[in-house]
Every structure is written in structure tokens, then in C-alpha cells.
Amino acid sequence: MPTWLRVLIPVVLILVWFGLFGAGGSSFGKISQVATNDQAQQLPASADATEVKALQAEFRGSDTLPGVLVYQKDAGLTEADQAEINGQVAELAAIDGVVSDSVSPAILADDGKAAEAFLPLDNAVKPSDTVGEIRDYLAAHPISGVDVYVTGPAGLIADLSGAFAGIDGILLLTALAAVLVILVIVYRSPLLPLIVLGTSLAALCASVLVVVALAGADVLILTGQTQGILFILVIGAATDYSLLYVSRYREALRDHERKWDATWVALRGSLEPILASGGTVIAGLLCLLLSDLNSNKALGPVSAIGIAFAVLAALTLLPALLLWAGRTAFWPLRPAFGSAHPSLAGTDARGLWPAVARLVSRRARLVWIASTLLLLVASIGALQFKADGVPQSDFVLGASEARDGQGVLAEHFPGGSGTPAVVIGPENELQAMADVILGTAGVDSVAVVSEDSVSGTLPVTAEGLQPVGPPGTSVGEPTVVDGRVMLQATLDGAGDSPEAEATVRELRTGLADVDAGVLVGGTTAIAVDTNDTAIHDRTLIIPIILGVILLILMLLLRSILAPVLLVLTVVLSFAATLGVSAWVFNGLFQFPGADPSVPLYGFVFLVALGIDYNIFLMTRVREESISHGTRPGILRGLVVTGGVITSAGVVLAATFAALGVLPILFLAQISFIVAFGVLLDTFLVRSLLVPALAYDIGPAIWWPGKLARRP
């Protein structure tokens, strides 16, 4: 290749990535604008709650999100307080984003100590912004001695959005700082960590650029939790792939005097494992497209885009930067041409990994049996892992005005005030539906939507529609859309409580006897459908991911036995991680439970990323086995990859641990599961269990490939 072309190629690659870095960097400010935390938008199209949400806009004239104001005064609200409260409600109705014609007057509690008002918000205007404006107004106009809370689904979403507010800054800075410190310790060089970190940042910026464009065009749904996972996943994966290439490049610089020759050797040595690792992760993530839950469907392609750019950056930008820097990148520990390879000094050399190799060679069976037993004991705790769903009010860790407001609401009003179950059914079955609803345990009252009523609803009892207003006032007529009416059932339990969910399930069963086409939706039904779909997804998708990964490993290692054993070890590692996580979550942190998607997400990341390290190890073991035989090849592969894979595992664990800085229950749990699981896989499974098991089996590990028949 001509010299000028050798110079041009890396320059062009660096410039292209520099352009992506700049364009993606400018998109960081837009990513929060296209992200949504509305649980309803993540439901499958087939769910009853999704259909009800779409139909509600036809009855109400707009797509609304329930908001509730709760006023409380321990000494009791005076007439002057009530007048001031109603004045505030009237002022708040004029705020942009509040559906003014659906705002209710303040309703006084029976004990006289609290009042509530309903402020439906227009979903077309960002609800969290509207809630922020409402809270600002209330803070600027306090009523003496009266506490006020903005709660309901609108308040909870606003608090959740506020918790995600640090995702662009705090999360990213924490992750980058952790990675930088680890890289400096690993390489003991001032320049190389910056090159590796720059590669990871370029991959992230390119990912953000594409994801924001797709989310802005409504091609995919981007949630706050998906956004956080994207940041962490790209930084961690790109750094891991970069570490593998750097290790190969450092080896090549000892054998080749010219940087260009060393670059090609390093690329040939790292191309297969990096592509295989990235391809395995992408394949696992894309299995989420089989999910019925829109949030899961979105996570698959969003994360796959991130991994694709991580692979691309590690195989193009990083080699170009290291070609430019050469041996200077490793200063002050430059790898001199012709010098010995410390990692290839053999199992008799000093150091941690030669010592581990000696242990594996001398006590292989004892090592893998002991490791397996340890993982099995840890796995017992998985039986105590609670993943049946948590109330939406528990999504945010720490302070939450909406959650406090829910508690105050439940003290003075039916718990479901402001978050009614919504029933849509035939007009001619209005009374029959009302009778079933009123006869269901856990229902406080029922009303039918009406445009003629001041409050927008008319009470329905066993005697029929009830007049609203002074004696002689017209009853009004229910709103009818395509021959259907909409009823609202106020539940005794809080809208996100297990009691309310049980009531919704009973309502669906009872109303199906009235008419099979009756739909039950609302805030509680959204949670029910979300949890049911998430449980269905993890049951379906986890076996498919295992099958896809197993197939990829068989093609990569030209073997059946080795891939089967590798997958089994990773599954065992995942079970042990869930067991330890259950003890930590239930005992140490006393979490209320976990979202049903937590085990699925944890499985996707741990199995896909855990297989990554086994791919790094076993591809090198296979390479060494071809030249030196299986058992010597296992030991040489273990010694050579020990340092780089351990460093990669620590980096990935640190980046996922950074998710814990955000006060979000889901991310805190994913953070611990993946960070602990990666460390367990790195230090026990990949370092001891897999090499010892492979060493004990010997050449048969490659069955039925050719290596199995070689002496």
C-alpha cells in the first residue's frame, strides 16, 4: 500500500469520527425532549388500557393526563381557606397545558381537614412542564397554615422526569470519571486512557445522533431509563472492545518495528472476537423486538445502535488514533521492538495469572466443582427475588411530592380519587355496567362522562343517573361516541396499589358477563397490563436469547460442547447474581419489590456481556490450542487474556454502577445486578470455572470439531 494512502486512511477516519462527535454532542440537549416517561405510551397496542386511552380523547375532546391538587390543614379548612383554594384552582385552570373546561371545583373531605381538585393536563403539552408551572405558582402563593401537593399520575410523572434530570450530566460524568480512573491505574499512562475514553465518547455521540433522529421521527420510543442504559452500555462496551484491541496492539508492537504492520496484526487478531462479541450482544438485544411491551421493543434497537457504534469505533477510530500515536501512547511503559511478551512468559512466570493457571492445571476438577457449588448456593436466594411489579409512586427513590400527596389523599378521600378506573361499553348496557361496578368490592362510586354536567360527570347509582346541582336541575345526558359511553369508577385503594389492581381484575371479569366488548382502562389498568405483558415477555424472550447466543458460539468456536457449557456457566452466574441481589434488595435496601422487566433486562445484559468475556477467552484459547494443544492452549489463553478481561470487567461494572447515582428504583436495581454479575463472571466464572472445566475435559471440549481429534 502506498505511503500516502497509509497516511490518508487514518486521517479520514479521525475526521469522520470528529464530525460525528460534534454532531452527536449537539444532540445531547435534544435527547430529553424526545424522551417520554408516560407509562401508557409504553403499552402494547393490543392491551385494553391502550385502547381505552385512545378512546378517552374522543369522549373528553383531548388526550388528558389526570392531575390532582390536595390541600390539607390539621385544624380544619375554614370558609376563608376554601374560598382562597377555589380562587387558586381558577387561576391554575388558565395555565397553558391545563384542560380548563375539565377542571373541577375543590371538593371538601368529610372530616373538613382536606380538599381536592382535579386538573386534567393536556398530553400534547409536556405534562412535567405544566406540573412544574403549577408548583411554582403554588409556592409563590401559599395559603397560611395549609399544605398543598400536586399528585396523581401527572405529579408522579413530573417527579420521575425530575429524577431523570441528571441523566445527561451527573450520570455521564460519574461513568466517565470511573472509567478514566480505572484506565489510568491499568495502563499507568497519561495519553492512552484519553485515547480509549475519546473512542468511547465518539461512539456515544454517534449513537445519540442516530437515536435522537429516530425518536424525533417517531420511529422508536425513547424513555428515560432507556436513555440512561444507552449511555452506560456504549461507554462500557466501547471501552471493553478498546481494551482488547489495545492489548493486541501492544503485543504487535513488540514483534513489528513499523506501526503500520503492528496495526494490521492487531486488527487481524482482534477483529473476530470484537465482531463476535458485538454481534452476540446485538443479537440478544434485538430479541427484545419480540416483546409486546413498547418500552422493551424500544430498548432493543436503541441499545443495538449503541453497540454497533461501539464496535465500529473500536475497529476504526481507535486503530487510527493508536497508529498516529504509536509507542508514545504507552509512555512511560513503551513496548520496545523485540522485547519479551510478559503475558506470554508461560505458567512458570511470576504474577497473578500464571499463578491462577498453575492452580487450574493442578486442581482443575476441584476448582470447577467448588466454583459451581458456590454459585449454586448463591442461586438459592433467587427464589426470594420479588419481581411482580411495584406501585408507580415507588418508582422514585428519595423525596417525591406526588407520593406524599398520595398518602394525604388516602387519609381523607377514597384512595383512587383522581385516578379512576375507566370503563367503556355499549350505551344500552349503561345501567347493567354500573350495577356490576357498584357490586364489585373495592369500588367507592361510579359516574358517567357527560358534557352537560359542570364537573364533566354524572353520578350513577343502582337507581340510575342522579341530578347534579340544586333541586330541579336537569340530569343531563351521557356523552355517547359510536354507541358507547364512558364510566369512571373511583376505587377505595390508591390507583397504584395492589388492592386497586385486584379490583380492576375483578371488574374485567364481571363486566365481560355484561358484554364481551366492555373495556376497562385507566391508571390502574395500565399498571396491570404493563406487569402482565412484562411477565409474558421475560418468559418468551429469555429462552430465545439463549438459543441465539448458543448458535453464534457454535459458529464461532466450531464446536457444540464448548458453547453449551459456556452458556450453562453464564446462566448459573445469572442465577447466583439474582440470588445475591434478592438478599441485598430485600434485606439491606428494603426495596418494595421490582418491576417484572428487571430480571429480563438483567438477563439480557449479563448473558450477552458475560458471553463477551468468554468469547475473548475462548477465541484466544482456540488460537493457542491450534499451535500448542488444548490443555497448554487453555493455560496460555488464560494468562494472556487474564489482565485485559479483568480490566474490561471492572470497567463495565463501574459504568453500570454509575446508574445508581440516579434516584430511580428500576435503574438502581439494574445497576447492582449488572455490576455485581459482571464482577462475579469476571473473577469467578471466566477466571476459574470455565478454564478449569475446559482443562478437565481436555480436547473433547471442541467436540465435534477437528481440534477434538488432535493429540
UniProtKB/TrEMBL annotation:
The keyword Transmembrane applies. It is a multi-pass membrane protein. This is MMPL family transporter. SUPFAM superfamilies: Multidrug efflux transporter AcrB transmembrane domain. The keyword Transmembrane helix applies. Gene3D superfamilies: Multidrug efflux transporter AcrB transmembrane domain. Pfam families: MMPL. Residues 567-695 form the SSD domain. It comes from the Bacteria. Belongs to the resistance-nodulation-cell division (RND) (TC 2.A.6) family. MmpL subfamily. GO terms for cellular component: plasma membrane. It is found in: Cell membrane. Its main location: membrane. Keywords: Cell membrane, Membrane, Transmembrane, Transmembrane helix.
